[in-house]
Design goal:
Residues 2-174 form the SGNH hydrolase-type esterase domain. By secondary structure, the protein is α/β, with parallel strands linked by helices. It has one domain: SGNH hydrolase (Rossmann fold, 3-Layer(aba) Sandwich), CATH 3.40.50.1110. It is built from ten helices and six strands.
Length: 281
């Protein structure tokens, strides 16, 4: 069960039917290829702040207690003026505690390093502070961590879509690979694979790109914040119920196994195996 905001909804990774695909759908496909009994839900909605994620999405995770919950939240709170990463992290920790106590493994995410992102680079210290809390929370509740801050290949502009706020399709693919590694799912690919070299962008061309980005993306985003409007106000979750995984690329649905429930879920087993490999057991 995937909880969160636009990052987990999958913006801007186009699906074949006009919706968004994204790292969470890609990760579900990786799990389903080896474990066709997988059931999957994606409750994430763009623009959601932590409190709405906790009030709207977390209760479903508590009710169903899925084997694995991905929980990326708080990023939209952190980039708001005047927000306190310590206070946001305290509310985040309470949600993680409740979900782990319900029996779920909670997959958590650090924030991206914003050093290369115009405007948001000013918030790098706040993001780093929040990341420190996320890692401490993960230690406290035995959560696997997807360390986006340390994934240096995401600093390449090709990892990002035109708005510079959401990942490109290749960025989503790399995050899915990193998430799979975090829970011990074997993958055919390396999220840290270097990008092919590109010629440098001429200064004048870079300036034009920045002006275009400011007009088309930054100013509308700031305007929504000033009006108290969210891009997700009229958006519903794309996969609100736990159901057999259906690949958005092929339309193919995984078949459920006929032998009842496994004694240990594939996600929990894989996480345990990853811990054993880390500890040398």
């Amino acid at each position: 069960m995937a909880l969160g905001d636009s990052f987990t909804e999958g913006l801007n990774d186009p699906g074949p039917a006009g919706g968004w695909y994204g790292w969470a759908d890609r990760l579900a496909g990786m799990i389903a290829s080896a474990h066709p009994e997988l059931r999957y839900a994606n409750l994430a909605v763009r623009g959601r702040l932590l409190d709405r994620i906790v009030s709207e999405q977390v209760p479903q995770a508590l009710a169903f207690a899925p084997d694995l919950v991905s929980f990326s939240a708080g990023g939209n709170d952190i980039i708001r003026p005047g927000s306190d990463p310590d206070e946001v992290a305290a509310r985040y920790a309470d949600a993680v505690r409740r979900m782990t106590e319900a029996g779920s493994t909670v997959l958590v995410f650090t924030g991206f390093d914003t050093r290369e992102t115009p405007v948001l680079r000013r918030l790098r210290g706040k993001v780093a502070t929040y990341n420190g809390h996320v890692r401490a929370i993960a230690d406290r509740y035995d959560c696997p961590v997807v360390d986006l801050w340390a994934l240096r290949t995401l600093s390449d502009r090709r990892a990002w879509s035109a708005d510079r706020l959401h990942l490109s399709s290749e960025g989503h693919r790399r995050v899915a690979l990193l998430a799979a590694q975090a829970i011990g799912i074997p993958v055919d690919g390396d999220p840290r694979e270097p990008w092919p070299l590109l010629p440098p962008v001429p200064r004048v061309a870079a300036l034009r790109e920045n002006v275009h980005w400011t007009r088309e993306h930054l100013l509308p985003w700031v305007g929504r914040r000033l009006r108290g409007v969210s891009s997700g106000d009229l958006v519903r979750p794309k996969q609100p119920e736990l159901a057999p995984y259906q690949d958005a690329r092929t339309g193919r649905t995984t078949r459920l196994g006929g032998g009842g429930c496994a004694t240990q879920s594939p996600v929990r087993a894989s996480h345990a195996s990853a811990e054993q490999r880390t500890s040398g057991a």
